[in-house]
Amino acid sequence: MQEEERPQAPSARDSALVRPYARTGGRTAARHDLRLETLLSTDEDKLYRANNDQAAMMRLCLQPRSVAEISALMKIPLGVTRVLLSDLITLGLVAVHEPGDKPNLALLERVLAGLRRM
Asked: Which terminus has fewer CB within 10 Å in the chain: N or C?
């Protein structure tokens, strides 16, 4: 009698199948106060210091991006994005750029477009 073939369990490395809380180690609170419009950026030379998940997020920050944009592009919940970005800030892998006194209309349009894609 032949053994029935059992379907293989999905790989934990497949980010689409990893539960959001697993990416943060169960943490739900970010160490840094990151608003939707907060811009983050990084340099390409810092990518080598990051693991795969971090590097994917950092590649988005090679040009300044808002927290909302990163969340939408990574297709992960905003709370998870904040925790992961906070880790990158703590490690010194991304820089935070707080918006000035005047609203940046181009940024607000990009944030709105990112939210619509969610």
From this structure: N
